[in-house]
Write a structure and sequence with these properties.
The protein is an alpha+beta fold. About 35% of the residues lie in helices and about 30% in strands.
Length: about 90
């Protein structure tokens, strides 16, 4: 599970979602998840990642997980989750 640390406290879920949208464009769907601090990034039924935004001391941590069942989750951890983490890292949050 990749974790991205942003050197600014209180990055909101909406800010992070917008940053991912800008990095990926319309190729991926970025939408809120059921929990207020989570959002989901997906491309089709089997490709996706879930992001949890967590405050830290003077920073914000974004924990990225691949989604799916067993093999699909493993593949998404190694591909999609890493791509999402890289997009967050490259964004100017």
């Amino acid at each position: 599970m990749p974790t991205v640390r942003v050197g600014r406290a209180n990055v909101s879920r909406d800010e992070a979602m917008q940053a991912v949208r800008q990095q990926f464009g319309s190729e991926y769907e970025v939408k809120p998840a059921s929990h207020d601090s989570d959002f989901v990034v997906s491309k089709g039924a089997f490709t996706g990642a879930k992001v949890r935004v967590a405050p830290g001391d003077g920073e914000t941590q974004l924990h990225v997980h691949g989604t799916g069942i067993i093999i699909g989750r493993i593949i998404n951890e190694l591909t999609t989750a890493r791509q999402v983490a890289a997009a967050i890292t490259n964004a100017k949050l």
